[in-house]
Design brief:
heterodimer; A: mainly alpha; Non-ribosomal Peptide Synthetase Peptidyl Carrier Protein, Chain A; globular; B: alpha/beta; Rossmann fold; Luciferase, domain 3; GMP Synthetase, Chain A, domain 3; 3 domains; five-stranded mixed sheet; five-stranded antiparallel sheet
Chain lengths: 86, 573
């Protein structure tokens, strides 16, 4: 079941890289870089966009990795771990 | 400038380095930044001593092989580190011709890199290759390399001995070269069809260094901060050859680290009080967008007297965002400059004047379509940023299709000539002949002049430049054509200037018979996957269109400029 965090992360990725096309078949575990949705610089920009979307979220440079930011599910898990989304 | 930097009297680059070491043997050459470790500081003596060790290994290997009188080509393909600098300089000390080549990106599949590396080496045909042990192991594992090949070496083969203290420069063994001999080769980047070896003489490089030092009013106490790769002309000349020869310290971050942690550059600027920084346009946008609140606390960039925007079309919007984001940290528009450069001219061709924001020209979009840059206000306009006037010793001419010089504000091809122009494409006289006419080099770039300022307005040839990487649209179209459900040959790839990212964004338009939404979604994804895997690039937009949407020329070829107009009218987001 998708939560508000999942939906918000999905929205951020669609907006930043896919022109807001909500019909794009973006799967939770899809690797964003390998599948050509964005490049690794895109992940750094995504981190900045997520900080704006989730007030209180602060992402350190060392956290901007493929493990934490590489897919929708990884990002949602990271945000939950950081405790800002409740 | 010669009074300020007497080593400019020397006829060759390696003699300039030796003269620098003689004047100031303890001078800092490079401060290398490695994530999570203290910075490594190397003096010019340290660097020359290591370069000398490389030079002896080169001599040894060349002597035991095929002692030809012609200078040998040495490919240096290493990651960020002192060996990258030393292996290159060693090539010049040994009287050979070194060239920088891109090492594997950590996100690239080893298999793919190994194969493209082999193709690249077949193309360049070097006499010696210095690369990482991991690259050699990868080649060997795939049967792409003969383990007994003595002409491939890695830094471990050198058994480098670091020794403290000043070097006695003129006692190092070095080969005298003629000023007009080839000093090194710069390889234009890009997909295979675009790779050309640009041969540059010592004299051309020396002339560029003197002219450019004058242009930026280079001072002995300047300090350069950079993350730029050295296999690209901006990083290689402005942030490596120029500072090394003229005695300016370099603070260098690995390009791979910068991508993941762009704020590191800013923190290192502050820590080392850097004064000069060269960045491609997209980096201004990227820094403004990706540097977060946590990085801005206490950030002071006031030491930087000049931020040079170069190597991609300069966008006014990127500069605005950069100044807005970092204005409180000591960045102001008057410290920004725009530069038009290319490896064929060693580096800079023109640059905007110091101390003032580059002039922005607003012109009518409709007149532009007819080849005129008429000043205009309002909505249907485009902005161009001035790249300033030619640097000393360089002449620029804008020429129309008939080969006649254009008037002010008339768009034509940019030609140039002067004292730092390249000697030719290495061993490619055919290409060289095609690029020159009566000593004028035809750049293939389109632009116009107004009151002596040069504005770059596009390219004559189809070429997509994304974050400084060159792609031939035909290569992208061929990859997309392979995807099942894309109608064979009915694909067009275009580069769309994107103010958000500050660079071009790749737009792919492909014809398909599919109508089902979910099948079309999967097809869009497959296209993105394949572009990422084959070209290591993320498409900005993928549009699927019905059969016969794309316009073909009467010759039956996909007409890129017509399709661009159709895209802009019907699909552009």
């Amino acid at each position: 079941m998708s939560t508000q965090v999942d939906d918000s992360v999905r929205e951020a990725v669609l907006e930043l890289f896919l022109g807001g096309d909500s019909s794009f078949p973006l799967e939770p575990d899809m690797d964003l870089v390998e599948s050509g949705i964005c490049d690794s610089m895109g992940l750094v920009q995504l981190a900045a966009a997520l900080e704006e979307r989730f007030p209180g979220l602060e992402i350190q440079d060392q956290d901007v990795t493929r493990e934490n930011m590489g897919s929708l599910s990884a990002i949602a898990a990271f945000i939950r771990r950081s405790g800002v989304a409740g | 400038m010669i009074d300020r930097f007497p080593q400019l009297r020397e006829p060759t680059l390696h003699r300039m380095l030796l003269a620098r070491a003689e004047r100031d043997p303890h001078g800092v050459a490079s401060i290398l930044v490695h994530a999570g470790q203290p910075d490594s500081v190397y003096t010019i003596s340290d660097l020359l001593r290591l370069a000398d060790q490389y030079a002896s290994v080169y001599r040894e290997r060349l002597a035991s092989g095929n002692p030809e009188s012609e200078a040998a080509q040495i490919v240096v393909c290493l990651y960020h580190g002192i060996h990258l600098h030393a292996a290159f300089i060693g090539g010049m000390l040994a009287g050979q011709i070194p060239t920088m080549v891109a090492p594997p990106s950590p996100r690239m599949e080893p298999e793919k890199y190994a194969r493209s590396f082999v193709r690249m080496m077949e193309h360049i045909a070097p006499d010696i290759v210095v690369t990482e042990a991991a690259v050699l192991a990868e080649l060997e594992a795939r049967g792409l390399r003969d383990p007994a090949d003595r002409n491939m070496l890695n830094p471990d083969d050198l058994d480098a001995k670091f020794q403290a203290g000043p070097v006695d420069p003129w006692n190092l063994e070095y080969s005298e070269s003629e000023a007009d001999a080839v000093a090194f080769i710069q390889h234009s980047s890009g997909t295979t069809g675009l790779q050309k070896g640009i041969a540059l003489s010592h004299a051309a490089v020396r002339n560029q260094l003197e002219a450019y030092a004058r242009t930026i009013d280079l001072r002995a106490d300047d300090r350069i901060a950079t993350w730029l790769p050295l296999y690209h002309d901006m990083g290689f000349i402005a942030c490596f050859v120029l500072p090394l020869c003229l005695g300016i310290p370099i603070v260098e971050i690995s390009p791979f680290e910068w991508v993941n942690s762009p704020a590191t550059l800013l923190h290192k600027i502050q820590q080392h009080r850097a004064t000069l920084c060269w960045l491609p346009n997209f980096a201004f946008s990227f820094l403004a967008r990706s540097v977060r609140a946590v990085h801005l606390r206490g950030l002071d960039l006031n030491s930087v007297r000049l931020w040079v925007n170069c190597s991609e079309p300069v966008m006014a919007e990127s500069s605005r965002r950069f100044v807005e984001r970092f204005g409180d940290c000591g960045v102001d528009a008057g410290r920004l400059a725009a530069c038009y450069a290319m490896a064929e001219n060693v580096f800079a061709v023109t640059q905007s004047p110091l101390g003032q924001a580059p002039r922005v020209d607003r012109v009518s979009a409709s007149a532009l379509a007819e080849g005129r840059a008429e000043e205009a206000d309002g909505a249907a306009t485009r902005e161009f940023v001035s790249n300033g006037k030619p640097i000393p010793g360089v002449e620029v001419q804008v020429v129309d299709d008939a080969g006649e010089p254009c008037g002010d504000r008339q768009i034509g091809e940019i030609y140039l000539r002067g004292s730092s122009l390249f000697s030719g494409y290495f061993k490619r006289e055919d290409l060289t002949a095609a690029a020159f006419l009566n000593e004028w080099y035809h750049t293939g770039d389109l632009g116009y002049q107004a009151e002596g300022d040069l504005f770059v307005a596009g390219r004559k040839k189809d070429l997509i430049i994304i974050q400084g990487r060159n792609f031939h649209p035909g290569d992208i179209e061929a990859v997309v054509s392979e995807v099942g459900d894309v109608i064979d040959g009915r694909v067009v790839a275009i580069g769309q200037s994107d103010e958000e990212s500050g660079t071009e964004s790749l737009v792919v338009i492909a014809e398909t018979e599919l109508e089902d939404t979910s099948e079309r979604g999967q097809l869009g994804l497959q296209i993105r996957n394949l572009i990422a895997q084959r070209l290591d690039c993320a498409a900005g937009e993928v549009h699927l269109v019905p059969p016969r949407w794309l316009i073909k020329s009467t010759a039956g070829k996909i007409a890129r400029s017509d399709n661009r107009s159709k895209y802009e009218a019907e699909l552009r987001r």
